Amino acid sequence: MAAPNRGRRPAGAQGKPGRTxxxxxxxxxxxxGGMFATGDTTPRLGIDLAGGTTITxxxxxxxxxxxxxxxxxxxxxxxxxxxxxxxxxxxEAEVQTQGREHIIVNIPKGTDSEQAxxxxxxxxxxxxxxxxxxxxxxxxxxxxxxxxxxxxxxxKKDDKAEKAxxxxxxxxxxxxxxxxxxxxxxxxDALKAPAADPTxxxxxxxxxxxxxxAEGSPAPNASGDAEMSALEKQFTALNCQxxxxxxxxxxxTRPEKTAIACGKNSAGQWEKYILGPAEVDGKDVDxxxxxxxxxxxxxxxxxxxxxxGAKKFQKITSKLSQQQSPQNQFAIVLDGEVMSAPQVNQTxxxxxxxxxxxxxDSAQNLGNMLSYGALPLTFSEESVTTVSAALxxxxxxxxxxxxxxxxxxxxxxxxxxxxxxxxxxxxxxxxSAALTYSLxxxxxxxxGFALNLPAxxxxxxxxxxxxxxxxxxxxxxxxxxxxxxxxxxAVERAWPRARRTILVSxxxxxxxxxxxxxxxxxxxxxxxxxxxxxxxLDVVVVFFFTKxxxxxxxxxxxxxxxxxxxxxxxxxxxxxxxxxxxxxxxxVPTDPKEA
Length: 595
Fold this sequence. Notes:
It is a single chain. The chain has helices spanning 17-38, 47-50, 71-86, 113-121, 159-170, 180-192, 222-237, 243-247, 307-320, 360-372, 389-418, 421-447, 453-482, 487-519, 524-553, 557-560, 570-573, and strands at residues 52-61, 94-98, 102-108, 126-136, 151-154, 259-264, 270-275, 280-281, 285-293, 298-305, 330-334, 337-340, 343-344, 351-355, 377-387. It is α+β, with helices and mostly antiparallel strands and 595 residues long. β11 and β12 form a beta hairpin. The longest helix has 33 residues, at 487-519.
């Protein structure tokens, strides 16, 4: 006869429940500590609770170019929209993709919603402009900025072009102003210089149909002088380090006019520019990308132009290559901001590359920005929701009141029906609430999660889901007691059956939340995310808190003795004594006759 396996525990038995409780308590302390360490002790509120404007944009591709709606292009659009919104002076705006073809823009209270809609709803404006003059970005006397270390060359380089590229990197910029007065003189000289004629030939001679101006031609009219004077004063006073000053440039960036713009150089310092009228726009760019030049071991940005764009680019670079710095630079201007201002040392056409102090990120970012001008993407507004701060506060209060009412009703039901077992359920609900709160607070800065009104509804629904798991387990334990078992074996035998039911129920809830999160857009995703998160936490709490706590409770006299207020009184549950099999006795007759 085989010896019994003494080390084997019954199914569902838990030898050391205290260790499991310590584990979940450590997790709670760690999450709470992380919450206080990051300084985010409260969940971030969505626009519908904190007040503000939410704009949902849907990307649309041109016919035949449906593949343009992809992750790279959408992320580029997000970056451009974010810069636009931040240009309004909004520091807490959120711009993020949602799904494959939607962008959600959340603009907090205190921002002009109409101006914000105008900024995010229009296509990005990308232009190539000749540089007339450049100076340090502040208004106080500063040393002149060095020449751009970036240079534009033909995609196919020969030895001469290589030399020109190296010369461009070492060349210093023409001396700019060291004082506002000197800056003003530089501006005046730049404005009086003849503007680049896009129709001029490579040699710079005028068209045959145009006759040169005779000597003694009239001076510029009064309105032109006034405009030059105003532009000079604006440029001298401009402080590009001031975000509001950059945003106030506004109409000065119109493509057909001389413009003032700001941009950062390779050292990350602001510079201010006077730019000539736009010669090439973003639609003339066929493709652009940042890539590593294996031969030279440096990151570059390559540009391919359309047939019409190549002709425009050839004409303007032919003229710029004959100028001195900084007037041999062309500025790449995106939404009024100079993204790059490379020097031109040779005539360029359909293919060009920009080289300089690029790393992988800066090269790829500039390539994406250049490509955006050629992206066959437009955005349409699907929905715009504006909520005042007062209304948001009222909705938050209403949501909290609804949650409190739901929690009180659940607690009353548990106390009336389960009595002492209600304490285990209430403690489990408190642990679940603490985990949910700390995770929501941490997920705000981590992934941009914001608690909106549908998310509050998801949290309220989760109270019922969590309580349902406790009820399933308690009823299984009661069923075992009704069959005549004592509490400790009943707790362990009920667990495997209850565990299967709880897992199936939570799996269905989580699956529904996941599907809802994938197929919906906007605020409904907040409900789905919260429902999925709390469903997962329900599994964690039941397995690592409720079950171990129930095992420890079964060892106490209050519960194991089956007192009336324990909720496990055998008499109240209608338990019957265990059935015992009685032995049958057979009488064997001793007298053969009786047989």
